Amino acid sequence: MRKILFALSLLGLLAGCVVAYLSAITQPPLAPAFNPPTNPYPKGIYAEGMVESDQPSGVNINVYPEVSGTVKEIAVKEGQEVRKGEVLLRIDDSIQRATVEQLQSQARAAFTLLAELKAQPRKETLDVAEAQVVAAEAALKTAQDALEKQQAAYEVNPKSISKDALDTARNAVATAKANLEVACRQRDLTKAGAWIYDINNQEQTYQAAAKSYSSASALLAKYTLLAPKDGIVMAINPTVGSYVSGQGSYDSYTQGMDPVLVLGSAQQYLNVRCYVDEILVPRLPPPSRMKAQMSVRGASVKVPLEFVRMQPVVSPKIELSDQRQERVDVRVLPIIFRVEKPKDMNLYPGLLVDVYIGE
Asked: Residue-wise pLDDT tens for the chain (359 aa)?
């Protein structure tokens, strides 16, 4: 039994020696996938940057609709070059189009009634009024002739005509005269045409209907999104059948609202927006002597940058990945550089890069 324990102890000691020997062997380090960025300037300042489209101001053009609805058609594709005024996307406008047609019909009806008032008197209506005057004159002449005959008979023989018959004839003449005066006034009223107040009222009604139609037409045009300028379609977030609003399009992955479309400029040149920490701002060289170099993460290529402009306001630092403000109130100075897109490198807006600024 002791011999067995001694043998096992000896084997354990031998195994410990082997493990100790193997653990002491140093493995050669793996070569890095790419060389880390280095500061090319003696007193260079490091800043984290983001690649953007080459814009005179701002970042990219985020297109939002001014109306809400279901996407009916997407007329462009991502990466496609578009011209100013070209159709990008159409939203279902069936209800608004029907409203426009209704208001257009109301405006046309109001204009037709206004034209009718201005065209008065109508020739046929005036002819009827003139005929009524002629008829009234004839009736008066008949009544006067009957009265004259009865008066002549009364003068010859007062007993041949009763007093009542003579009074009735006189009343008939008076009635005929009144009818003639009414017919003449009606003719004059018809000849005068529409009342100026009726015309003004109808003109205001037409103007209101026309403006309602114009407003509805302008709103109808909002259902078609047009390119605000020449550029490239960088992102299309909704698809046909998706619901969009003035807040954009719902992203099921981030559960947030994104722009409906994102437009950028032609990518021959790109901008790089850097955020310099407020502690390093006093060390910045003047813009006339400022130089910068960009390193793309995952590559060993270093690209020189050209100074474009500086936003002369120190703002709270943001997390570039999702634009959320940090908990600590760290402030940065935005500086924008310009770079010509390398032909042998994949460089796209939204890419995070390392930037060193010197002089």
From this structure: 677 776 777 777 777 777 777 777 766 766 665 666 777 788 888 888 888 887 776 667 889 999 999 999 999 999 899 999 999 999 999 999 999 999 999 999 999 999 999 999 988 888 999 999 999 999 989 989 888 888 888 787 877 778 888 888 889 989 999 999 999 999 999 888 889 999 999 999 999 999 999 999 999 999 999 999 888 898 999 999 999 999 999 888 878 888 999 988 766 788 899 889 888 888 888 888 888 998 887 777 788 999 988 888 888 876 655 555 556 677 889 999 988 887 777 788 888 888 999 88
The CATH number corresponding to 61-92+223-264 among 3.30.457.10, 2.60.40.10, 3.30.230.10, 2.40.50.100 equals 2.40.50.100
* pTM of the predicted model over 0.70: no
Cis peptide leading into residue 36 (ω within 30°): no
CA R_g for the chain: 47
CATH code for the domain defined by 121-193? 1.10.287
The residues near 186 (Cβ < 8 Å, ≥ 6 apart) are: 129, 132
Q: What are phi and psi of 325, to 5 degrees?
A: -70, 145
Single-letter amino acid, residue 138: A
The contacts of residue 229 (CB under 8 Å, 6+ apart) are 61, 84, 263
User: What's CA 108's distance to the chain center, in Å?
Assistant: 28
Give the DSSP letter string of 39-66.
--STT-EEEEEEEEE--SSSS-EEE--S
Domain boundaries along the sequence of the chain: 45-54+267-358, 61-92+223-264, 121-193
